[in-house]
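Problem: given the chain below (108 residues), write out its structure.
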Amino acid sequence: MPQGHATVSVHLLGNSAYLAATVLAGRIVALQITGTSAPSEWSFETIGLGAPADLIINRLGPPFRREAIPRRGTGLWRDGGEFWTYGAWPFSFEVANGRVISIRLAMP
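Solution.
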């Protein structure tokens, strides 16, 4: 799926998650895992999909910024949620209903 000059490839990880890889100029510039659960190998700082939001704060501290995710029909975002970022650090989380539903690592 083209995204500007980048291409995003989506790979299903069973029935409960997917991995999106963003490639720009032949390099992976972002990886994002989204879903309700995934194997522990797909965690970041022991924070995996489905983990309680409090675990993020316990491991990394409070987010520098929280942005509301609007409600979207059905699926993970049906009840809205929050996008958590950590300033210049190249990772972010999406949290809905008190649980991690997405983890993104990107080149700064």
